Structure formats: C-alpha cells, structure tokens
Amino acid sequence: MARALTSCEPQAFERFVEHFRSKIFHYSLMMCGQPDDAEEVAQETLLKVFQNFDHLREPEHVRAWIFRIAKNACLMQRRKSVFAPEQELSVEELPPSSEITDSANLPEDELQRSEVRAVLHQVISELPPAYRCVVLLRDIEQLSTDEAAQILDLTAEAVKTRLHRARLAMRQKLDCYLRNRCIDIEPIASPAPLSEDAWQELHTAWRRGETCGCGAGAPDEIADKTILK
User: pLDDT digits over 36-84, tens only?
Assistant: First the structure.
C-alpha cells in the first residue's frame, strides 16, 4: 500500500487513508478508551505520517512505522484527555510468566462468531496498558515480535513475556464468560465519517510531504470526499 502511494497509483491516497485510519482508530480506542480521543489520535497520526512520508525507507514496514507514530500520539492524548483514568491495574497484578504455557491460546472457536469481536474487545480493554498494547500489535494487527518490540521500545523477550501473561489473563476472563456470561458486552465504536476539512488537511499534508509529484493535483478533485470509515 505504501509502494502504491509512492508510485502515484490511482486512488492510492484514498485507499491508504481509509485502511489505516480505521486501524489507528481502533488501536487508539483500545488504548485511550474514548472515541473522541481515538478520532484525534487517528487524525494526528496520519498527519505526521504524510508530513514525514519521505522518511520512510522501507515501505514493507509501513505498518510498524505508522503504529509507532500512533503509540506516541496516543500517549500524548492520554496525558491531556479528560477521560484518562486516575488509576490503572498494575502489570504486577497479572499472573507471572512462569504460569504461562504454549497451550494458553484464546478459545475463539468456543464463542459464537457474532460475539467474538465484542467479547475480545472488552477483555483486551481491561488489560493493563503495558500488556494491552502488546496484544493489539501482536494478536490483532499481526505484527512480528521484533516489530512490536521496536514500536514499544522493548526487547523481544519482554514482548513475548507480556504477551504470554496477557493471553493467560484473557483466557481466564474468556473462560468466565463462557461459563457464566460474566462480561458485560458494550457496543464497539466505529470512526465517525471524515469531515471535508479533515480530509483536506490530510491531503494537503501529503502534497507537501511527498516527493514523487503525484500529490500536486488540484484540490477540487477530492473536495467531495467527505466520508471515510
């Protein structure tokens, strides 16, 4: 997708924004906890991406690069958000890694498919942030251990340990749900339609930051692009 954008393929910019805006929104929603904060993080992240797109040396690693930017934007948003919790669960409150086995996989096949996404969303959102971000990057976004370690400024071993602990904690909560339906499932928010002003802001940042010249088209060509989800 990054190569398509740098190669000036038709509609590459639109596809890039639509694809990554949704991913960044849901990552930020899980980390920040509020749709309004997630919307701000998604817009700020994409702005930084387009402003610095010429710094991307390895297009095949664009996802890791984008999520590193999103992680930093989310941290800043959490610090200033009125929704930031006063206290969060400590990582020490989760089971130690010695209790983890390779068999501690998530029992997705035991849940009705219509419930999986909502239940997992709720379970992941209740993890401590340090573990939550590892699960999101490794299990949801399917990034490699090394990519997650680079994004989070951790060693690969630390990523593996946190992921194992998080999976065990999730397994316990999912088992509770399967037996007792003890989790209150809440609807999962989706990103709001992208306004024309926000769209133009992203397109302008891309035009100024790109180097191939394909962003220099007339802005009127994208004036009616007001909805991206």
Answer: 999 999 999 999 999 998 888 888 889 999 999 999 998 888 777 544 4
Dmax over CA atoms of the chain, in Å, equals 59
d(C-alpha 133, C-alpha 148), whole Å: 9
Please answer whether residues 69 and 49 qualify as being in contact, where contact means their C-beta atoms are separated by less than 8 angstroms.
yes
pTM of the entire structure? 0.76
What is the CATH number that goes with domain 91-180?
Answer: 1.10.10.10
Which residue carries 């960044």 as its tokens? 24
Helix (H) or strand (E) holding 37: helix 35-51
Between CA 33 and CA 38 the distance in angstroms is: 8
Domain limits, the chain? 2-82+193-222, 91-180
> What's the alpha-carbon Rg for the chain, to the nearest Å?
19
Stretch (H or E) spanning 22: helix 12-32
Taking only the tens place, the pLDDT of each residue in 112-153 is: 555 677 788 888 988 999 999 999 999 999 999 999 999 999
The rounded distance, in Å, linking the Cα atoms of 209 and 229 is 24
How far, in Å, CA of 150 to CA of 159, rounded?
10
